[in-house]
Amino acid sequence: MKKRKTMKTNYSFLFAYLLCFILNGQQTPIDFSDNSHQFSSWVGSTFIILDGPIDPSNKTGQFFKNDSSTEQGNYINLSRPIDLDIEDEITLRFYAFDPNAHSVVVKLENGTNTDIEVAVTAPSNLNAWTDLIFDFSTVNGSGQYSRLVIRIDDGSSVPGAFRIDDINDGNVATDLHALDVIYTDLVWSDEFDSTAPQAIDNAKWYHQTFGPNGGRWFNGEVQHYTDRLDNSYVENGFLNIVAKKETLTQDGVTLDYTSARLNSKFAFTYGRVDVRAKLPAGDGTWPAIWTLGKNVNETNAYWQTQGFGTTSWPACGEIDIMEHGLGATNHTSSAIHTPSSSGATVNTDSQTLADVANNFYVYSVNWSPNQITFMVDGVGYYTYNPPVKDSSTWPFDLEQYLILNVAMGGFAGNVDPNFTQSPMVIDYVRVYQNNNLSVDVNTLDEFKIYPNPVDNIISIGFNKTIDKVEVYSLIGHLVFEDKPTNNQIDVSNLSKGVYFLKIKSENNYITKKFVKQ
């Protein structure tokens, strides 16, 4: 949920959504077989998908340059980066409508290394396809890149239309939103099991009521959040967060709407969140299911009151699992806010569902050390996986906590003057992780493992009988288990990386981290 003073109009926000709809979800090979294979253009270039010049049943991309500039081009952002460490050749088919030779440049940008390009000359081949190979090993190409740029005839102002097809880096099409980690262990939940109206479970949730913007909230929102039963309660197995039209003076500020904003008293790093919900109805309502870094220094946020508020937004990271009200009715969205892009973030996608006010949907996020995937009813539709993960793009290696709220107005637009009240109804909130690395109540005395880092053999310095050892990946998957011989285990078959070694002795356990080099 956008939550700071970055001012923008609804039009700019919708433009960002439209832009990301076009640019997200791309991967090689690109054969223009559907409308998702869209290139963007600059200067006088244009791009359009058309029937093939020889085989009309085969879609191709038409790249057109006019006479306004000697350097024009087109680019596409890729959700799955091109990895030159795996394959350093990019191929494509080129078609010209004239008998001239043409220079074609493929440039890779937004990568782990500096931008890099290769130029190839397409020989004279009137009204015929030519296969071109761009060998990035000739320019010492390496690393991953998430933008592919095509320029034709640099240095020439002669206009022309050209066709391109079958852009490939050796990959095959895959599910863009396949989950890399499956989280199966329910570690925290609220099922909202109550028949009579009652307050929320204060052991699990905290009412955030004080507006950090001088008693108001950011983004031009027009509601007060309260801890009253009128605005949030549990009944008949559901949590109701109710936005109401009523005048309330709170913290010296008078506003015309009330609602509730709940912070979870549970914070976690990595896992899956499922929230089954129906959304409020009415223009100007802005429901959100989202997370913020536990370290956010926002006034009166739960974890800030517990002494963890050390980091400003967006450096704390924000994961918007679901927002509604930022587009047309039934248009829901997900987004990521980081120092690299926040407010009108480019890291976002959206989709239209059927009657979200009357139908329950399960809004989910699957957050692993490598990617963040957003789902509705278990189907992924947007994945955030920047090729460079640093404090600017990936503040997501620390704990986040959940927020449930219904805002009014602000970026959701003017509130319907006939609005009286409407709830976000939540059936359950569930958080899953993989708990294989949980340590039992009884733990062993300290032991030593050496060498660390290790190449092949780990020795365990321990004076008791070892029943077995288990080796886990950094994200908690069991890699193998063994009963060591002479207190040694062979890890030569492991890939390079960080692992956990868990030792069991007489029903007691202890775990240590080691590095395989």
User: Beta-sheet strand percentage?
Assistant: over 45%
The overall average pLDDT, rounded, is: 89
Q: Tell me the distance between the termini.
A: 41 Å
Q: Total helix count? A: 2
Shape: flat
Number of strands: 34
Cα-atom Rg, whole angstroms? Answer: 27 Å
Amount of helix: under 10%
Low-confidence stretches: 2-25, 437-444
Structural class from helices and strands? Answer: mainly beta
> What does the largest sheet look like?
10 strands, mixed
What does this structure look like?
This protein is mainly β and 517 residues long. The protein is 3% helix and 46% strand. The chain is built from two helices and 34 strands. The protein has helices spanning 10-23, 302-305, and strands at residues 40-42, 46-51, 59-65, 73-83, 89-96, 102-111, 116-122, 129-135, 144-152, 160-168, 185-190, 205-207, 223-225, 232-235, 238-250, 253-259, 261-268, 271-278, 285-293, 318-324, 331-337, 348-352, 361-367, 372-376, 379-384, 400-408, 421-433, 448-450, 457-461, 468-473, 478-482, 488-490, 497-505, 508-516. Strands 11, 13, 14, 15, 16, 18, 23, 24, 25 and 27 form a ten-stranded mixed sheet that branches. Strands 12-17-26-19-20-21-22 form a seven-stranded antiparallel sheet, with helices on one face. Strand 2 (46-51) and strand 3 (59-65) form a beta hairpin. The longest helix has 14 residues, at 10-23. The radius of gyration is 27 Å and the shape is flat. Residues 2-25 and 437-444 have low confidence and may be disordered.
